[in-house]
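can u do me a favor
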């Protein structure tokens, strides 16, 4: 059996309008760390069908009340922002957390209006992300950075503070373009809504892109992100996760069901372990339980089941 993957759970941001306060979010973060979860995730949107949550702000608050747990964006919509202020924000968060931050990035696009609302042509999001990834590492390690791209132009730019240590960049996505981006620029890759066959093929595409870029493909960590719900009643678990996903993406759950483990913690872990056997070293969970605290508690149960299966 493979080594059990690390398990991180998403911490949803606060919104008093929906009954979630900042204190509730931070209590859940403390609970996750106490339960031994490996990481905490924050999603990121500016105005996704009208709803937003800034992943860096959420994790800055979480960093202040935790000591050990890894902090990840999954995923931060990098092409929606200018790379220079992002470089500074990430550096400050990494220093605050003493090197616990992982920048997971993606290009989004499910709601094109989110991009146009931010003054960004959604058709350019992939190219913007690629340029930003080239620039951001230089801003973290160099002074007087100059760059002449199609979307970003920098003239002798210096950003301090620098990160506590080199911040890992994990690339998320499903498309071949995302896989090439991970191979060229990423320290890790996080898949979503992928069959086992596609996940295995993703490794090959990433490796090919890495070799062409002169990089060591074995240094790129593979992982997966899953929506899930844990309940003894499998039908009840399906109803809860399907309702949450349909409300978020405005698509029928049938589009996602084959990629979405639900049921008991053991059933969910069994589905996930197949990906671990295929090379997934990290697992991100978006739980859809009744409360934020229950989300982290059920994620911890899945983690324990994975560890038991791995021996």
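np, heres the sequence
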């Amino acid at each position: 059996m493979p080594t059990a993957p690390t398990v991180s759970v998403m911490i949803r941001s606060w919104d008093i309008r929906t009954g979630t306060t900042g204190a509730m979010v931070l209590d859940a973060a403390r609970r996750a760390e106490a339960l031994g979860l490996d990481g905490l995730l924050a999603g990121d949107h500016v105005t996704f069908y009208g709803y937003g949550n800034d992943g860096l702000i959420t994790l800055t608050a979480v960093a202040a009340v935790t000591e050990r747990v890894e902090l990840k964006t999954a995923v931060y919509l990098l092409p929606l922002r200018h790379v220079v202020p992002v470089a500074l924000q990430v550096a400050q968060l990494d220093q605050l957390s003493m090197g616990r931050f992982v920048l997971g990035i993606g290009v989004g696009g499910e709601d094109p209006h989110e991009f146009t609302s931010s003054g960004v042509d959604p058709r350019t999001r992939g190219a913007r992300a690629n340029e930003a990834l080239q620039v951001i590492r230089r801003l973290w390690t160099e002074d007087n950075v100059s760059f002449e791209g199609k979307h970003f132009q920098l003239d002798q730019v210096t950003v301090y503070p620098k990160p506590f240590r080199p911040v890992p960049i994990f690339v998320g996505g499903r498309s071949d373009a995302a896989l090439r981006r991970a191979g060229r620029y990423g320290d890790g890759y996080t898949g979503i809504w992928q069959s086992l066959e596609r996940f295995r093929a993703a490794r090959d595409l990433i490796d090919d892109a890495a070799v062409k870029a002169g990089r060591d493909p074995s240094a790129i960590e593979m992982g997966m992100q899953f929506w899930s719900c844990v309940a003894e009643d499998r039908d009840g678990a399906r109803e809860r996760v399907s309702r949450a996903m349909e409300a978020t993406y405005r698509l029928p759950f049938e589009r996602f069901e084959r990629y979405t483990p639900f049921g008991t913690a053991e059933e969910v872990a069994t589905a996930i372990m197949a990906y671990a056997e295929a090379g997934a070293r990290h697992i991100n969970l978006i739980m859809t339980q009744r409360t934020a605290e229950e989300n982290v508690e059920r994620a911890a149960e899945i983690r324990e089941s994975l560890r038991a299966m791995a021996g």
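Residues 292-310 form the longest helix (19 residues). hope that helps!!
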